[in-house]
Design goal:
mainly alpha; about 75% helix
Length: about 90
Amino acid sequence: MGTCSWILFGAIAGWVASLLTGRNERMGCLANIIIGILGAMIGGFVVNLLGGRGDITGFNLYSFGVAVLGAVLLLGITGWFAKNQKY
C-alpha cells in the first residue's frame, strides 16, 4: 500500500475504533489517522503473536479487522492510563 492508502486506511480504522470505544467526540481527523496506522501495526503484531497472519495486505476485511483490533487496544491502553492519572 502507498502512503495515501495508509492514510485513508488509518483514518477509517481509527474512526471505527473511536466509535467502538466511545471516544469519537474527543478525537479529530489527524488523531484518527495516527491511531488507525499505529493500530494496524499493533494489531499485526498481536495477531502474529497469537499464531495468525497479521500482515496488512491492502484494503480487505481481514486487514481492516486487524487494524481496528489494534486501534481499540491502543485506545483502551491510553484510556486506562488517562483515567489513572492524578492531577
